[in-house]
Amino acid sequence: MTSVAIIDYGRGNVRSVFNALDYIGVTATITDDPAVIDDASHILLPGVGAFGDAVGALNARDLPEVLHRQAFDKGKPFLGVCVGMQVLARKSFEHGEHDGLNWLDAEVQRLDPGPDCLKIPHMGWNSVTLSRAHPVFDGIKADNLEFYFVHSFAVTTADTSKVLATGDYGEPFVAALAWDNIVTLQFHPEKSQDSGLEVLTNFTRWTP
Amino acid sequence: MLKKRIIPKFLLRDGRLVKYRQFFDDERQAGNPVSTAKVYNDYGADEFIVLDIVPSEGSKAKVLDIVRTMSEEIFMPFTVGGGVTSLDDVNALLRAGADKVSVNSHAVRDPNFVSAAARRFGDQCIAVSIDYKDVSPGVPRVFITGGREKTNHNPVDWALRMQDSNCGEILLTSIDRDGMMSGYDADMIARLNEQLEVPLVVSGGCGGLEHCMEAFAAGASAVAISSLFLFTDHSPIKLRSHLVSNGINVRASKTSRN
């Protein structure tokens, strides 16, 4: 049976993710308990706060090793959202330079406001373009690939094979990554109304 | 590209929705906040804002309850404000399910508050709400305490200072235009937008679809709307289709579910 462990590292609003899963009828627990995480079928790392602070909070609870075990040894479906996507990178430049969990060869860089002086944070709804089909985006019409973003930093990677979706904010930015049993999203599915709930539903049904 | 946003904005007084003109006149009851928010979620609004306009210890508890219920039933971002005077207040609202917390009077009273809140909770979840009106022709000033207390801040200068304090967004409200449905203060929006690097949500005066066009033309990132939705037959759906047909980049559709 599907049960999602929502990783609690003591920061901000993780309730919304729980509420969205509850709404779509999926059993979920907000937890930092390795035993509960080990028992879950799906892992969701939500995104809250700043990069350095988030990594520090994960480390303080010895969570990186627990998460690594779920994703790599047990091969569970793993979803990282927003900062929960970014912390998997090698390094971030948000307020200084911080090491990440180094799950992939990627860095987190500040968005460039460009010649049009675009507003930072990139806040609001934006459309994304998929580079390939993926089960978590199944059944969502191209017109409805619109999601809620709120971020000032984004993942950059030379490993383009992992880029699942991009958005456009002056220049293209990575909106989703996917490889093996791992999917990460820069946008907030729990705040993206029907399209977001669809992504969460797909994730909880995903058996990679 | 990033879409322009349509944001219903609601005022709470003791846990009930209310609406005024120019902040004080002509109180009208406007219903239950949670059911209203659900309606706008179904209408595909892009976000919503709810502000407790007469905050007290008693109303704070009611607002937290409302926020908790809203976050169980509504899956779009929402901002909550009114009576936020401590980091604990911010934390309580975020933990209850708010995505952004708006700070107004306390940002003026404690000049370090916004930067402290942004550092602790992240820039993106601290919005600064600025209410202003003309104290004489062409002399706008920021007002706090629900429009009752004048300050010496010019709204543009104040917004830029709050940006330097790392707020994630500015919510700019014209008291003179509040509830009058005669149009946004496009001059002020343009003047501020020229210098502002964070998103600008504008409020006060929306009475028709063309007013939203004017606000976006002046540079607004989002329009906050209350009277137009509460007291006319306009809805976010109708506004959205009007904006799309006029070439404004808003979300075209709201649903992927069959």
Task: Explain briefly what this protein structure is.
The complex is a heterodimer of chains A (208) and B (258). By secondary structure, chain A is of the alpha/beta class.
What does the secondary structure layout of this molecule look like, with pairings?
The complex is a heterodimer of chains A (208) and B (258).
Chain A: E1 3-7, H1 15-23, E2 27-31, H2 34-39, E3 42-45, H3 51-60, H4 63-73, E4 78-81, H5 83-86, E5 91-92, E6 98-99, E7 106-110, E8 122-130, E9 146-151, E10 153-157, E11 163-169, E12 171-179, E13 182-185, H6 193-205
Parallel strand pairs in A: 1-2, 1-3, 3-4, 4-13, 5-7
Antiparallel strand pairs in A: 5-6, 7-10, 8-9, 8-11, 11-12, 12-13
Chain B: E1 5-13, E2 16-21, E3 25-31, H1 33-42, E4 48-52, H2 57-73, E5 78-81, H3 87-96, E6 100-103, H4 105-109, H5 113-121, E7 126-136, E8 139-144, E9 149-150, H6 155-164, E10 169-174, H7 186-195, E11 200-203, H8 209-217, E12 222-225, H9 227-231, H10 236-245
Parallel strand pairs in B: 1-4, 1-12, 4-5, 5-6, 6-7, 7-10, 10-11, 11-12
Antiparallel strand pairs in B: 1-2, 2-3, 7-8, 8-9
Proportion of β residues of chain B? 25-35%
Distance between the termini of chain B: 26 Å
- Indicate how many domains the architecture of chain A comprises: 1
Instruction: Give the biggest beta sheet of chain B.
Output: 8 strands, parallel, barrel
Reading the helices and strands of chain A in chain order gives: EHEHEHHEHEEEEEEEEEH
Mean pLDDT of chain B: 92
Notes on the structure:
Chain A has six helices and 13 strands. Chain A is of the alpha/beta class and 208 residues long. Chain A has a single domain, classed as Class I glutamine amidotransferase (GATase) domain (Rossmann fold, 3-Layer(aba) Sandwich), CATH 3.40.50.880. Chain A has a nine-stranded mixed sheet with strand order 2-1-3-4-13-12-11-8-9, with helices on both faces. In chain A, strand 12 and strand 13 form a beta hairpin. The mean pLDDT of chain A is 94. Chain B has 258 residues and is α/β, with parallel strands linked by helices. Chain B has a single domain (5-245), classed as Aldolase class I (TIM Barrel, Alpha-Beta Barrel). Helix content of chain B is 37%, strand content 26%. Chain B has ten helices and twelve strands. In chain B, strands 1-4-5-6-7-10-11-12 form an eight-stranded parallel barrel, surrounded by seven helices. In chain B, helix 1 (33-42) packs parallel to helix 2 (57-73) and helix 6 (155-164) packs parallel to helix 7 (186-195). The mean pLDDT of chain B is 92. At the A-B interface, helix 1, strand 8, strand 9 and helix 6 of A face helix 2 and helix 3 of B.
